[in-house]
Amino acid sequence: MNPTEEAALQRLYADFDAEHLLPLWTQVGDLMPAHPRPQARPHVWEWKRLYPLARRAGDLVPVGRGGERRAIALANPGLEGRPYATPTLWAAIQYLGPREVAPEHRHTQNAFRFVVEGEGVWTVVDGDPVAMRRGDFLLTPGWHFHGHHNTTDTPMAWIDGLDIPFVHYTDSSFFEFGPEQVTDTGTPSVSRSERLWAHPGLRPLSGLGARAHSPIAAYRWEHTDRALDEQLALEDEGHAATVEPGHAAVRYTNPTTGGDVMPTIRAEFHRLRPGTRTRTRREVGSSVYQVFDGDGVFTLDGVERRLTRGDLAVVPSWSTLTVQADSRFDLFRFSDTPIFEALHQFKEETE
Ligand code: GTQ
Ligand code: FE2
């Protein structure tokens, strides 16, 4: 290109800019990479550092109307300071002090809680009080009113998972305040939702038809634990039951469809026998893991990170993951996979 042409080209680009236009040919490599090149990075947050920070927030920051929740988001270091664990998923530690109440509200964002330690908080979902205890997985699907109240003299912390970033990018958020106090202060050990819905393989005839969200408000640890134990016992007895040798796994499902618990979020629990090393996998979409119990090593895009109880790890889209269990290793996992499956964009590779 001669100097005259070069100057003309620069004028063209300046005129594009003035009209808010951008040519594909200068951007194509970034816009259409040969495979996903996530901005989010693999990252680990240690529970032993998170929990004391949440406790300090408990001492200094009140919970109530306006702020709504004492939730502290995991902010992925690749995502430009936004409170997002991945481009689609929010993950936070939420802390509720003795006798505190987080007021009721509802929003289009889908939410869940997972409890790694403690008890004494009830989350009230559309008026149904749901006890929260170690190992329980609790749902607050989109547009259900929910508030949390701690009925004890001890604080409690848990993790929240929501599709906040996805809803934010897609400009689809609606939000409404509910009452400042929870609508039902009862403290039953089993919610009405579980009494109606949480019986294996049985559904009430008063509730036929497919629903977009699971009607089960709480998936209790005793069931998850037993399901995983039985997979390993069956494997010991020579029956096919595990996803790979020494690796038991279950997915939380919506009993009205057999599919995922909520339209945007998948949740699973994995149990590795001591010494198990998984195959290396990568897939489209992002995941967050929390260690429920035990010790092991996550190799994320070739980098080893040692994890222990409560630690959280983010696996961005198309990043490789291998898990090595040094003890029995129990892992809670959630991901945005249902979004990609629904759009026929899901893809995975196993080494
Ligand atoms: O508990 O309702 O971590 O609305 C973020 C948004 C928790 C909740 C979060 C929320 C909640
Ligand atoms: Fe909420």
Automatic annotation (TrEMBL):
InterPro entries to which the protein is assigned, alphabetical: Cupin_2, GDO-like, RmlC-like_jellyroll, RmlC_Cupin_sf
Keywords: Dioxygenase, Oxidoreductase
Domain Cupin type-2 as annotated: residue spans: 94-160
CDD domains from the UniProt entry: cupin_GDO-like_N (cd02216)
Protein EC: 1.13.11.4
Gene3D superfamilies, sorted: Jelly Rolls
MF-aspect GO terms: gentisate 1,2-dioxygenase activity
EC main group: oxidoreductase
PANTHER family: 1,2-DIOXYGENASE PROTEIN-RELATED, CUPIN
Protein name, as recorded: Gentisate 1,2-dioxygenase
Species this chain originates from: Streptosporangium album
